[in-house]
Amino acid sequence: MQGNDDIQTRYERLKKAVDHHRTLYHVHDIEEISQAALDSLKRELTDIEAAHPEFITSDSPSQRVSGKPLPGFKKVKHKVPQWSFNDAFTPENMRDFDARVKRFLRPKFGDVQPSYVCELKIDGLKVVFEYQKGILTTAATRGDGAVGEDVTHNIRTIESVPLSLARAVDIIVEGEVWMSSKNLAAINRQREKDGEPLFMNPRNVAAGSIRQLDPRVAASRNLDVFIYEVPQTSEKLPATQSESLKYLQELGFKVNKHFKIAEDIEAVIAFWDAWKEKGRAQEYWIDGIVVKVNEKKYQEALGYTGKAPRFAIAFKFPAEQVTTVVEGIVLQVGRTGVLTPVAHLRPVEVAGTIVSRATLHNEDEIKRLDVRVGDTVILQKAGDVIPDIVSVVPELRPKNSKAYKWPKSVPECGGDGAIERVPGQAAWLCVNIDSFAVVSRRFHNFVGKHALDIEGFGPSTVDQLLEKGLVQHYNELFTLTEGDLLTLEGFAEISAKKLIAAIKKGSTVELARLIVGLSIPQVGEETALLLADNFRTIDKLAAAPAEKLEAINGVGPIVARAIANWFASKSNKQLIENLKEVLKIKSPPKREAKVLKLTGKTFVLTGSLTSMSRDEAKEKIRTLGGDVSGSVSKKTSYVVAGDEAGSKLDKAEELGVSVLTEDEFLRIIAS
User: Fold this and answer.
1) C-alpha distances in Å from residue 345, one per residue of 259, 340, 348
2) How far, in Å, CA of 301 to CA of 281, rounded?
3) Looking at residue 384, what is its pLDDT?
4) Helix (H) or strand (E) holding 329
């Protein structure tokens, strides 16, 4: 009879053996033993764990699928900021990128020719992995770049993700989760048999699988992963990107083998050209290549803009274009009553997505395209960009077709449906801004994520409440009961309780978010922050005349008049009074006098900063008492000119406004 020590020794050897063959098969495509034999080893492992649960560790192969479904996703604050790439679409775009890189490096390194690493751009879901002492601890989605969702429970189900590394290193890596086209086809065959709708593309299935609360769903999808970046490690970082990829392989990560070092930009273009066609033959979807400066010292010198690294770019394959037919043109009513024309299309697949609608933006765009009902049009979608109608195919235009004529009235605008064009703009809007369509859009905005952010309060729920007469004004949302919600389609006792709890939570709101939620014409998130910072209470803002509003840098005369006129309305005054009775409105944090070094100073930022993102610079200015504006005027104190500064720099020079380099700006905020 074996003793516990012997059993544990066998257990540890089994763990290593299973992990070894898992790595060979799922990472290196090598099969030393059959899958049946590997399954047998796994069964022995789990049998030992069943008898000796004290042996189980988090990196055991048995722990890839474990635990009950989660009630929701936890938020994870990224330890390393997550960036997106700028895009290039043509060889000329890439030559411009190369020229920018060299120009930026020249002051420090002279005339150098950096090498580039070309990597395939896998069309999947980006995930950030953290390992502590070589053990996987957290996996999170990219989210907004600063905060993502904890999806560790699903990532652990992917066989190509190592639960433990070759060395006990503390490391953060980034990668792409994907599904093979072959696997998608198999899933769709089963869904067809089961009478379920088919999935359109593997990217959406991969993303949807990772965002399941039950890890068994992800485990059943046979997902895969490629790791491509190591932003942080407790060991010495390699000197080049190509060495980083080899370093990741040494630790046990699966790295896409089709990367190449290019000595110059023409070699990059040749690589891209070759993969435009070869990419179709791969088991994973590729929508371009990612090009990175190879030398890490050059990467550090190049730094980042507000949203993307200067040392890297996504070189997209030519946009996919298809033709389809315009079956109708309808006007969509927005939250401020603005009308947006939308083309209803014969459904067509573009870049793996079925598209049946495309915005036509405004009356002037319809005239420019001369798009008509019945026209055959060319539809384009590049990457994640919203589908756009590029042009009409005139030779396929039906006989007797008529140019689209802007209507004189729109029934959704209520009453007689009267509409009017905004003077000096291409926009039309409803004369009656209290029609059901406009009111419902305003309610959608009020409870939406940029305003009160009431979780679970979707458009269909809002519309049902309005249709049943349960609410007419914003404040009535906060007097709803569970019984009210149970009268709505799709609500049961649990979902009603959850929404009531979310409404209660949403009744405490930051002033800036409330301002966004009010749907004041011309007022977006940035303007709402300015108004909140300057007035601090809703009463002071409501009482402010247009002249005082216009005195705020970043608020021009048109915006100031729109705000003053909105608050001057008798119905809006009553709306504010009603909201004050049900909401706890939080003013922005007060700035302590001892740190108000920039009080009275207004900054405008233009171009890209290397030391911090633009949002970080804005936050620093505000923390020190200064204001940030989006436009240059005589009231501007300083314009901070970063890399590739635009027209704001020209305006500053024209008005004689002081211009700061990034170094000068850093000295001011550090002094």
Assistant:
1) 40, 16, 8
2) 38
3) 45
4) strand 320-333
d(CA 152, CA 173): 14
Note whether 418 and 432 are within 8 A (CB).
yes
Please state the domain extents for the chain.
4-64, 87-316, 320-411, 436-506, 511-586, 593-670
CATH topology of domain 320-411: OB fold (Dihydrolipoamide Acetyltransferase, E2P) (2.40.50)
Residue 386, pLDDT score: 66
pLDDT band for position 162 (50/70/90)?
very high
* CA-wise closest residue to 54 among 3, 2, 1, 4: 4
Domain 4-64 matches domain 436-506 at the CATH topology level: no
Q: Is 121 a catalytic residue?
A: yes
CA distance 467 to 660: 55
CATH of domain 4-64: 1.10.287.610
Q: Strands 602-606 and 627-629: what pairing? A: parallel
| Rounded distance between C-alpha atoms, residue 590 and residue 537, angstroms | 12
Q: Which of 75, 108, 121, 133 is flagged as catalytic?
A: 121
**CATH 3.30.505.50 at 436-506, yes or no:** no
H/E stretch holding 122 reads: strand 116-122
CA distances from 483 to 171, 200, 499 (A): 51, 39, 12
The single-letter DSSP state of residue 588 is P
Residue type, 541: L
Distance from C-alpha of 542 to C-alpha of 204, rounded to nearest angstrom: 45
For residue range 76-87, list pLDDT tens digits in order.
Answer: 999 998 888 888
CA distance 99 to 1: 73
The DSSP secondary-structure symbol of 90 reads S
Residue 79 burial (10 A CB sphere; 0-12, 13-18, 19+) = exposed
* Greatest Cα-to-Cα distance within the chain, rounded to the nearest angstrom: 92
| Domain over 87-316 is classified CATH 3.40.50.20 | no
CA 666 → CA 293, 609, 614, 642, distances in Å? 27, 10, 13, 12
Helix residue spans in 384-481 (DSSP H): 436-447, 459-467
Name the class of domain 511-586.
mainly alpha
Measured CA to CA, the distance from residue 311 to residue 302 in angstroms comes to 6
Overall CATH class of domain 593-670: alpha beta
Grouping H, G, I as helix, E, B as strand and the rest as coil, residue 282 is coil
pTM, two decimal places: 0.52
